[in-house]
Amino acid sequence: MWDPRTSRSQSNSATKIQSAYRAHAIRTLYKKISAVSFEADHLQRLIQRQETVDAIRSNEREKLRMNEALMGLLLKLDSVPGVNPTVREARRKVSRRIVALQEILDAVSEAKTVYDDDCYEYGFVRSWDDVVAKMEEEVCRERGGDEMERFCAEHLGFRCLQRFLSGP
């Protein structure tokens, strides 16, 4: 005999099980994205070091090694399915950071010798931080357009926004 209370109870139980499974799946995917983000942080710290910059400029293998590491991170992100809007947004955010690191790496490797007037100040080569700051500012102005302040805050981080607000 069919009992509506049993049917409702089974439906509630099934809903709870499905909800718990979805939450578990999202946590698992988010952990994968967080691991890739952690690796991207490590590579970013490496790219910011002067020794790495010098190695990339002087050694094509070092540049390839760094590019392969960044591409590997993008491939790991590609393996994370975007089943949930939160997961998709987190994946998109990390992939943008990795692509930005690739662009910085390419810019560093293309600047084999720095004879650009913008990189010299009072006859001395400016610090690497100044060169990176100038590159970030150019990207910020190029891509940000009229809404540069918001673009800097969302995509290039607080340091760029701080430089933008302090002026030239």
Automatic annotation (TrEMBL):
Q: What is this protein called in UniProt?
A: BAG domain-containing protein
One Pfam annotation, family name?
A: BAG
> Could you state one GO biological process linked to this protein?
protein folding
Query: What is a single cellular component term in the Gene Ontology annotation?
Result: plasmodesma
Q: Does the keyword Transferase apply?
A: no
Matches recorded under Gene3D superfamilies: BAG domain (1.20.58.120)
Q: Which UniProt keywords apply?
A: Chaperone
List the molecular function annotations (GO) for this entry.
protein-folding chaperone binding
What residue stretches are annotated with the BAG domain? 32-109
**What highest taxon heads this organism's lineage?**
Eukaryota
SMART domains in alphabetical order: BAG
> Key word Chaperone present in the record?
yes
PANTHER family hit by this protein? BAG DOMAIN CONTAINING PROTEIN, EXPRESSED, BAG FAMILY MOLECULAR CHAPERONE REGULATOR 5, MITOCHONDRIAL
* InterPro entries given in the database record: BAG5/6/7/8, BAG_dom_sf, BAG_domain
